[in-house]
Write a structure and sequence with these properties.
Blueprint lengths: L5 H10 L2 E9 L5 E10 L23 E2 L7 E18 L6 E9 L5 E7 L13 E11 L11 E4 L5 E4 L7 E8 L2 H6 L8 E10 L2 E2 L8 H7 L1 E7 L6 E6 H13 L6 E12 L2 E5 L6 E3 L4 H12 L1 H4 L11 E2 L2 H9 L6 E12 L6 E5 L6 E3 L4 E3 L11 E12 L4 E7 L1 H7 L3 H11 L13 H4 L5 E8 L1 H4 L6 E7 L25 H13 L9
Parallel strand pairs: 3-4, 6-8, 14-16, 18-19, 24-26
Antiparallel strand pairs: 1-2, 1-10, 4-5, 4-7, 5-6, 7-8, 7-9, 11-12, 11-13, 11-15, 13-14, 15-16, 15-17, 19-23, 19-25, 20-23, 21-22, 23-24, 25-26
Protein name: Replication factor A C-terminal domain-containing protein
InterPro entries: Euk_RPA1_DBD_C, NA-bd_OB-fold, Rep_factor-A_C
Pfam families: Rep_fac-A_C
Length: 534
C-alpha cells in the first residue's frame, strides 16, 4: 500500500514533540490581518498555547484542489494551495555548487511539507515569503532522510510544466507559520544524528559573553568577521545550552536585536542542528534557520508572557551545567584515553608550560578561505583541500605550535592551533611572521622563521587549557593533545566555540604576500630553529 500524507500526522503523536501552527486571516497580497496559534500536538509545558476555532473545509474545495495529506507519489496535474513560509538555497557542502531552492510550505489544514526547485529552474518562479500561492503540475518525490524541516514523507518538486501563481482572495485562512519545538532532552537524544531539524524557544542568558542588560552592545564588525554569534539560552529552568547563530541568521539576529527599544529576552530559532561541541550539547543554525524575538510570532509571545510571570524560575541557576567541560588532571586524561569505549571528548586542565617543542615548525601557512594548508604551486599558493575548491589563494600563517606541559600528576605534549595561539601570546601568527621578515629583509627564501619571543615568554606560565581527545588519541596514533582554547589566567569566563576553525587575520594581504611565500617554502624544506637572541 502506498503511503499518504496522513502518516506524517501519526508521526507527530509518536515523537511527543510540540508542534504549533500560527494561523491568520489573509488579505489578497498574503499579508495577515489577525493571528492566533493552534497546537496540533502538545507536550507538558508551562507555555500556554491558544486554541483556534476549527474550520470546515469541505465546502470550499473543488475536486481538482488537493490537500497535502492527499498527495500521492509521482507526477500530479492537480492544484495545490499553500502559503510559502520560507525558502532558501541548497548547496553542496563540499563544492558549494547550487543544488536548488528548498521551501517550507503549509496548506489550509496546517499540514507542512517541503518544496524543491531544481537548480536549473531557480529564478523561474517569483517567490516571496508569506504569500499564498496555487501550484498546478508538480512531482511528489520522497522526502530526504537528513535535515528535514517537516514531518511529511514527501517533497513537492517543481517540474518543467509547473504553473505557480499568487492566490488572490483565498477562500479560507492559511496558517502563517509552522513550528516544531524540541527541548533539551529531545535535542540531547538526537545529538549528532543529522536527522530532522527542530525549532528552539527560550530566553537568552548571554550574547557573545555579555550578560543580557539594557546596555548590551553588539560588535557587528567582529560578528561579521567571525560569521557567527554565540548565545547562551535556557528554556524555563532547564539546562543552559549554547546556540551558535551563523551567517544570514546572525545578521538577522543583529538587526532584530537593534530594532527593539529595550533589550529583547526571548529567542526563537527554527531548524537548529544539535551537535556535540567542546564536549557539550550545542545547537547550530542551518541555511533554513530563521530568527524571532519577543513579540515577533505567537510562540515567542507566549514564552515572553510566561517569562514575565516566572522571572524567579527563569533566573534560577540550572543544576546541570552543560556549558563547561569537566575539569581533570593530565593523568586523568590519559586514563580516560586508555578506557575501553571512550569517545571523542573535551576536558579542562591546568598545566605549567615547560618548553616550546623544537624540531618542527611552530606555524603553517593556511588558505585564507578555509584554513586548510596552502602549498606552493607553479606561480602562487594553492589550497590543499578538495573541499575548498580554490586553486590560487592568499596564504595566512596560523599557529601549529607544540608545547610540553606538566602538572602534579603527569607530563604531556600539547599542540596549540589557530586562535588558541593568539590567546597564549596576544598576537596572530601572521603578525609574528610578518614582523620577522620586515626585520630581516635580506634573509633567503628558504630561511625558516624561528620561534618568536612571544611564544618563548610563555614558558613557566601556569594556564588553563581546553583540550580535545581525538580519534588519533583513542586509536593510539599519537599522545599529543590538541588545545582548542586557552583560558585567561585571572578568572573563569564562558567558553566560546570550541570546535570553530581558526579565524585568519584579515590584515595579512598582498603587501605580505612575498613574506608568506618565503614561510611556505621554508615549511616545505626545513626545520624551525630557535633564534639565538631576542
Amino acid at each position: 500500500m502506498e503511503p499518504t500524507g496522513n502518516s506524517s500526522d501519526s508521526s507527530d503523536r509518536k515523537t511527543g514533540k510540540k508542534i504549533v501552527a500560527s494561523s491568520a486571516t489573509v488579505k489578497p497580497n498574503g499579508k495577515s490581518i489577525a493571528s492566533s496559534a493552534i497546537a496540533t500536538t502538545d507536550v507538558s509545558s508551562p507555555v500556554p498555547v491558544k486554541p483556534n476555532v476549527a474550520t470546515d473545509l469541505s465546502s470550499v474545495h473543488a475536486d481538482q484542489v488537493m490537500l497535502f495529506r492527499d498527495v500521492s507519489f509521482g507526477p500530479r496535474e492537480a492544484e495545490l494551495r499553500f502559503r510559502l513560509i520560507h525558502f532558501w538555497e541548497a548547496r553542496n557542502p563540499l563544492t558549494k555548487t547550487l543544488i536548488g531552492q528548498e521551501m517550507l510550505l503549509i496548506d489550509e489544514e496546517g499540514t507542512a511539507i517541503q518544496g524543491f526547485v531544481p537548480a536549473g529552474r531557480v529564478g523561474t518562479f517569483d517567490l516571496t515569503d508569506g504569500v499564498v500561492y496555487k501550484l498546478k503540475n508538480f512531482f511528489r518525490s520522497r522526502s530526504k532522510v537528513q535535515y528535514r524541516v517537516a514531518d511529511h514523507i514527501a517533497t513537492v518538486s517543481f517540474t518543467w510544466n509547473s504553473d505557480l501563481a499568487v492566490l488572490d482572495n483565498p477562500p479560507v485562512p492559511f496558517p502563517e507559520d509552522r513550528f516544531r519545538f524540541h527541548g533539551y532532552e529531545e535535542f540531547r537524544a538526537n545529538c549528532d544524528s543529522k536527522g530532522d531539524l527542530y525549532d528552539y524557544v527560550g530566553h537568552m542568558k548571554l550574547v557573545n559573553g555579555q550578560t543580557i542588560s539594557d546596555h548590551i552592545v553588539l560588535d557587528e564588525v567582529d560578528i561579521s568577521e567571525k560569521r557567527h554569534i554565540c548565545v547562551h539560552v535556557q528554556t524555563h529552568d532547564g539546562p543552559v545550552m549554547k546556540l551558535y547563530i551563523w551567517d544570514k541568521a546572525a545578521s538577522d539576529f543583529c538587526q532584530k536585536f537593534k530594532s527593539y527599544g529595550g533589550t529583547p529576552s526571548v529567542l526563537l530559532v527554527t531548524t537548529v542542528n544539535p551537535k556535540h561541541l567542546g564536549g557539550t550539547l550545542a545547537l547550530t543554525t542551518m541555511s533554513s534557520s530563521r530568527v524571532f524575538m519577543d513579540a515577533d510570532v505567537q510562540p515567542s509571545k507566549d514564552y515572553l508572557e510566561w517569562l514575565s510571570s516566572n522571572s524567579d524560575i527563569a533566573n534560577r541557576v540550572a543544576a546541570e551545567v552543560v556549558t563547561k567541560p569537566e575539569t581533570v588532571t593530565l593523568g586523568e586524561i590519559f586514563s580516560y584515553i586508555k578506557q575501553e569505549g571512550s569517545k571523542i571528548a573535551w576536558f579542562e586542565c591546568t598545566a605549567t608550560i615547560d618548553d616550546v617543542v623544537q624540531g618542527s615548525a611552530w606555524y603553517y601557512v593556511s588558505c585564507g578561505g578555509c584554513n586548510s594548508k596552502a602549498v606552493k604551486g607553479p606561480t602562487s599558493l594553492i589550497c590543499n583541500s578538495k573541499k575548498c575548491g580554490k586553486r590560487e589563494v592568499t596564504g595566512v600563517p596560523q599557529y601549529l605550535t607544540k608545547i610540553s606541559v606538566y602538572d602534579e600528576s603527569e607530563q604531556a605534549v600539547f599542540v596549540v592551533l589557530g586562535d588558541a595561539g593568539k590567546e597564549l601570546t596576544g598576537k596572530h601568527a601572521s603578525e609574528l611572521v610578518a614582523s620577522y621578515f620586515e626585520s630581516n629583509a635580506g634573509v633567503d627564501a628558504d630561511h625558516c622563521v624561528p620561534v618568536p619571543q612571544a611564544l618563548l615568554d610563555a614558558i613557566g606560565q601556569k594556564r588553563r587549557f581546553i583540550v580535545k581527545v581525538s580519534d588519533h588519541n583513542l586509536t593510539g596514533k599519537t599522545q599529543t593533545l590538541t588545545v582548542t582554547k586557552i583560558l585567561p589566567p585571572e578568572a573563569p569566563q564562558p567558553i566560546e566555540h570550541l570546535e570553530e576553525k581558526a579565524n585568519p587575520s584579515k590584515g595579512f594581504e598582498d603587501a605580505a604576500g612575498d613574506m608568506v611565500r618565503k614561510a611556505s617554502e621554508c615549511l616545505e624544506s626545513g626545520e624551525a630553529k630557535r633564534p639565538k637572541s631576542g
